[in-house]
Design goal:
Elements (H helix, E strand, L loop, with lengths): L1 H24 L17 E4 L31 E6 L7 E4 L5 E4 L3 E4 L5 H13 L7 E7 L4 E6 L5 E4 L6 H7 L5 E4 L2 E4 L7 E4 L2 E2 L4 H7 L13 E4 L6 E6 L5 E4 L4 E2 H7 L10 E6 L6 E6 H5 L7 E2 L4 E4 L7 H28 L13 E2 L1
Parallel strand pairs: 7-13, 8-21, 14-20
Antiparallel strand pairs: 1-18, 2-3, 2-6, 4-5, 7-8, 9-10, 11-12, 11-13, 14-15, 16-19, 17-18, 17-20
Length: about 375
């Protein structure tokens, strides 16, 4: 009797463990591991990466405006400082090359890398030692230390100053809008908005540029920060991007047809850091579709040798990346870095004459 109950308990325990594994495998989309066994079928999944692109420090109502308290001063910023009720106390002072400002009764005060509130408090402490009721006011006049870059298919690509609240739409307006050309006797935009990117400190900020510029989704109008890079690629470029754990990461030009194995051959095969997984990312970067196949299964004829399309990202992930969403985000970030650096190099060549001693060089920073 006891042995029968023991065997029944063992069976229930095995059944419970199997059920837990089944539930774990069917968890939230993008959070489960990509197929780990070579015998598993092709896996296809779609992601919505731009569902909530507004930074956490943005105020309610969309637009992604940064909080003034979070703005940090830099060399080149100009401030208007005054003491309330004291005639002749108003001064416009720049943050000098040493990162300091100098003001009346206070003298030199560190400013670079600090917020307006922190600087105001230091000035207030200094003034209060001499004026018991002196109230210090600090107002930004010009931001000269914070910049963003906009590259690609805009009328005037380059680096611009961030002046107050600057969003993606402000950036496009500063660059005089998307470039246009003529196609079959009509005006057409030259930009590929589906693959436009916003890079921030080496990471991709997910923005739906199509939704922003075509459907007026103002939640996608993210506020820019110092060092941000906007890249608007050309709709005329027909490339496939082979990235990740390959021997020669590269861009493959699309002519009439390119298969997955052809693209991998162009990249000189997989590196030892790969375990044979291949992820093809296709469609809008804001809502990409990812297809997962195995290199060994393709060679054995059990996974298809996918036909690639212009704009596809072929990404071979390292072994350490387990979750598909993480792999897709890494693939798109790698793509964005590749395209941004290539576009920036092209802008440099176009901006500066081949003879670097030419005195007619145009400045890149546009005030």
């Amino acid at each position: 009797m006891n042995s029968e109950r023991y065997r029944r308990g063992r069976r229930l325990a095995r059944w419970g463990a199997s059920a837990l594994l089944l539930l774990a495998g069917g968890g939230c989309a993008g959070l489960r591991s990509i197929p780990g066994e070579p015998d598993e079928p092709v896996h296809v999944e779609t992601f919505d990466l731009a569902a909530s692109p507004v930074p956490a420090d943005a105020p309610p109502g969309g637009g992604g405006a940064p909080s003034p308290a979070r703005y940090t001063l830099g060399i080149g910023d100009v401030l208007a400082i005054s003491i309330y009720g004291e005639d002749g106390s108003l001064r416009e002072v720049p943050v000098d090359p040493n990162g300091n400002i100098s003001y009346l009764m206070v003298g030199s005060v560190p400013a670079a890398g600090r917020t307006l509130d922190a600087l105001r408090q230091d000035l207030q402490d200094g003034v209060s030692r001499k004026l018991a009721r002196g109230l210090v006011q600090v107002i930004p006049v010009r931001f000269g230390s914070q910049t963003f870059s906009i590259l690609g298919e805009v009328s005037y690509p380059g680096t611009y100053l961030i002046e107050g609240h600057t969003t993606i739409l402000h950036a496009l307006a500063a660059a005089r809008g998307i470039r246009t050309g003529y196609f079959r006797n009509s005006t057409a935009e030259m930009a590929d908005l589906r693959n436009a990117t916003l890079m921030r400190q080496g990471r991709l900020v997910p923005v739906d540029f199509m939704g922003l510029l075509k459907a007026g989704e103002m939640r996608q109008n993210v506020a820019l920060r110092n060092g941000d890079i906007l890249t608007i690629p050309s709709a005329l470029v027909r490339n496939i991007y082979v990235l990740g754990e390959v021997n020669f990461p590269r861009t493959v030009g699309f002519v009439s047809s390119v298969s997955l194995l052809q693209a991998l051959t162009e990249a000189r095969g997989l590196r030892s850091g790969s375990d044979g997984r291949i992820v093809v990312v296709r469609g809008s970067l804001a809502r990409p579709e990812a297809t997962v196949v195995r290199f060994s299964r393709i060679l054995a004829g059990k996974h298809p040798n996918l036909a690639l399309a212009p704009g596809d990202i072929v990404y071979v992930p390292p072994r350490r990346l387990a979750f598909l969403r993480e792999i897709v985000e890494t693939a798109i970030t790698t793509y964005a870095t590749t395209v941004s650096s290539g576009t920036a190099a092209g802008l440099y060549r176009d901006t500066f004459a081949p003879d670097e001693t030419d005195a007619t060089q145009r400045p890149i920073i546009i005030p």
